């Protein structure tokens, strides 16, 4: 009875109860993947790398994240949910071990590039497998809320808990030992998601090698069948481009404006504390007032304006810590305004959801690549302020593009995506 009540409560608030342990696992797992985000760039520059080398390093990571993100959904369909997540976990452990022991120990740039690339293959396979899983397990009228909770645990782990933990750990343990502790979070998160979680989705029957390859390639061929999905992908790239561009140059900029590293980490962590709550709010809002309206105003416009304010405010008000905290809250809220995009994409098809989510995941992964690449390409020619204007302009352009997205039709209440597909097949059979 207690388990049933627990399940009912989680289902009521939008979390598919059968996936509750996987949600927790992803949060813990992403702590391990986010510990370095707020301070790795200045640390590498202090130890001899140029900003262009750092941008290339982050870009290499972004490239493999994008590649892994693209195929996470179709791997889910081809080899199953838990196998996909396990492979991602192994990539993370191997990549982080090599990054610290082979790359940072001697500041070997080739080893840093190679191991950073290996790390990049890891977390998308782990977390975006859950994103596809949600598309099959969540009732259609609560999909946007379910993805709100997904991004809550994703950002809560990677950008909130990890940031505040690292601000403590680097002072108490040092930079290198702090990175070693990431393995504890990665392995613990994997245990919750893969062992304690009893739900699973396995491939239908035993497939031939040819069928498996065809399934993997579905992440590419779906774009030919549904070309408008490319627009969803572009908007997802825009969504988090500032999240991955800012860490390349904003820490050094904020320090030059009078903030300490600890203050900057606190500002960054506060932004994503705001973000994890607003992804829940915007997920519910998207279910109520429509996905497109939420993405345009709460996502594109709000993030574009707040990106400019966050960067330029110190030039006019100095190192005003409380004001920057407030602006970071607004910026974090704007990033969360895109959360209904997942629900819109998942609900546009009744089958091949893994392929559709792979396209969306590709956009998330490409933003990890595009953010640092944008900085590396433009910062010498137009400076940090020019890069920020370009980023803001992308958000405003994305708000306009959102008008051209297709919104799915309303589904009956309490109908999961899997049940909708079964019902459609039965109707077609008749």
Automatic annotation (TrEMBL):
Transmembrane segments: 21-40, 60-79, 86-104, 110-136, 148-170, 176-196, 229-250, 262-282, 294-313, 319-339, 359-380, 386-405
Major facilitator superfamily (MFS) profile domain span: 18-410
Keyword Transmembrane helix: yes
Broad class of the protein's primary localization: membrane
Subcellular location: Cell membrane
Keyword Transport attached: yes
Membrane topology: Multi-pass membrane protein
Domain of life according to the entry: Bacteria
UniProt signal peptide: none
Database matches in Pfam families: MFS_1
GO cellular component: plasma membrane
Keywords noted in UniProt: Cell membrane, Membrane, Transmembrane, Transmembrane helix, Transport
Gene Ontology molecular functions: transmembrane transporter activity
Residue segments, region Disordered: 411-430
Protein name, as recorded: MFS transporter
């Amino acid at each position: 009875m207690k388990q049933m009540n627990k399940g009912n409560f989680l289902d009521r608030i939008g979390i598919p109860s059968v996936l509750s342990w996987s949600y927790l696992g992803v949060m813990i797992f992403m702590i391990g993947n986010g510990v370095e985000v707020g301070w790795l760039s200045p640390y590498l520059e202090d130890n001899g790398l140029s900003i262009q080398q750092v941008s290339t390093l982050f870009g290499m990571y972004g490239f493999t994240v994008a590649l892994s993100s693209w195929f996470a959904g179709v791997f889910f369909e081809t080899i199953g949910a838990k196998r996909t997540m396990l492979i991602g976990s192994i990539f993370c452990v191997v990549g982080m071990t090599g990054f610290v022991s082979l790359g940072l120990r001697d500041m070997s740039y080739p080893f840093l590039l190679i191991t950073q690339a290996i790390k990049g293959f890891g977390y998308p396979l782990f977390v975006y497998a859950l994103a596809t899983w949600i598309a099959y397990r969540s009732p259609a009228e609560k999909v946007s809320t379910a993805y709100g909770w997904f991004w809550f645990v994703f950002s809560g782990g990677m950008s909130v808990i990890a940031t505040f933990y690292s601000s403590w750990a680097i002072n108490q343990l040092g930079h290198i030992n702090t990175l070693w502790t990431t393995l504890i979070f990665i392995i613990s998160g994997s245990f919750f998601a893969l062992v304690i979680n009893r739900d699973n989705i396995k491939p239908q029957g035993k497939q031939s090698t040819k069928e498996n390859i065809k399934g993997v390639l579905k992440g590419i061929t779906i774009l030919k069948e549904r070309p408008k999905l490319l627009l969803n992908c572009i908007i997802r790239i825009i969504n988090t481009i500032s999240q991955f561009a800012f860490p390349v140059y904003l820490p050094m900029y904020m320090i030059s404006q009078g903030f300490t590293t600890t203050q900057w980490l606190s500002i960054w962590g506060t932004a994503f504390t705001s973000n994890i709550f607003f992804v829940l709010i915007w997920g519910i809002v998207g279910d109520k007032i429509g996905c497109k309206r939420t993405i345009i105003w709460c996502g594109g416009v709000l993030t574009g304006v707040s990106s400019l304010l966050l960067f330029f405010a110190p030039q006019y008000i100095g190192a005003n810590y409380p004001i920057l905290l407030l602006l970071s809250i607004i910026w974090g809220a704007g990033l969360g305004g895109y959360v209904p995009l997942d629900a819109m994409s998942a609900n546009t098809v009744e089958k091949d959801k893994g392929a559709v989510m792979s396209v969306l995941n590709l956009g998330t992964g490409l933003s990890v690549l595009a953010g640092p690449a944008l900085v590396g390409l433009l910062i010498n020619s137009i400076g940090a302020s020019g890069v920020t204007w370009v980023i803001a302009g992308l958000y405003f352009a994305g708000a306009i593009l959102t008008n051209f997205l297709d919104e799915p039709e309303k589904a009956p209440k309490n109908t999961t995506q899997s049940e909708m597909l079964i019902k459609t097949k039965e109707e077609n059979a008749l």
